[in-house]
Specification:
Layout (H helix, E strand, L loop, with lengths): L2 E6 L6 H10 L2 H7 L2 E6 L4 H22 L3 E6 L3 H16 L2 E6 L4 H6 L2 H11 L4 E4 L5 H7 L5 E4 L18 E5 L8 H11 L8 E5 L7 H7 L6 E3 L8 H5 L4 E4 L8 H8 L4 E3 L15 E3 L5 H12 L2 H18 L2 H15 L2
Parallel strand pairs: 1-2, 1-3, 3-4, 4-5, 5-6, 7-8, 7-10, 8-9, 10-11, 11-12
Helix pairs in contact: 3-4, 8-12
Amino acid sequence: MKVLMIGVDRTSVGGMLTVVDNYLNDKSFCDYTHLEYIPSVVNSSNFQKIVFFIKALCIIILKILTKHYDIVHIHMSTRTSVWREGIIARVSKFLGPKVLIHIHADVEPWVDSLSVKKQKLVSYLLSSADTIALLGFKWEPFIRRITKGNVKIRVLYNAVFAPNVNYYNVESRKIIFLGMLTPLKGINEILEAVQQIDSKISQDIEFNLYGADKNHNIEELINQYGVSKRIKYCGWLTPKDKPACFKDALICLLPSYTEALPMTILETMAYGIPNIATPVGAIPEVITSGENGILIEPKSSGQLADAILSLLQSKDLLKTFSNNSFETIQNKFSIEKNLAGTISLYEFMLK
């Protein structure tokens, strides 16, 4: 078996890179699949991205023609990525290998916003795949509706490193957020919720925000809400700093308006951290509200505040959620299960 994988440049940040690294860092997987990796996009200006893509496409064509791969595994996000990786998928299909498109985002709202002509183009590009891998069952009806021909659809959950021991510290006083600090991630609801409960919670409870400050205004917002003594912006959380952070986190917040299957939730649950999140994307396939976390409606700072208070008031509930979160990742979302599932998918495609 020979697999060519296409994705983001390894200097990028974000959940897709974490998924790619899971594959590239596993020697057994790489040896079995004779894996080669080519990035199709770089974290840079639009002009440099175009130049980088054109060069990558030329390299991909040359590699396929000379190396005779069995499968081209293409990681795709949304918007520009659909056009870029869709072109790669169509070219790869024309040259002969089986094509696997691995979609890492909720593309449905974006596709539905397009003109009919552009929707047909998206359908044409996605239909070049032999198989489309999704992060959850939520999107299967949409993908079946938009693709033509005999495209197979499979669910391939994201995966994370899962420690053998639950390191959860129920005595921690830190509540964390990991992600892009933008309204779509629910950052305003977090600030509003903290403002609402500030006088009701212990003075030693602190909220640490990790991630890229895309709009360069998070500290200004913290001051506007009057919660600067309670909330701290900590910048980007590097992979080497994650274990220490997770071992000293009480709760993780992710009140997003839209998601696919966020690595933030999987990574923190692997360390037994209970999450308060929204039932968007494939999150309900990971979090069962009242069993291993709490799901609230998007754009509801009141529900978020109530959920935080309910957990802070019950160590027993925190411990139950922690144990169940840890077991959920061990049973369904470990790297070992993901790699085995990917190989099974490759073998299915080659039958």
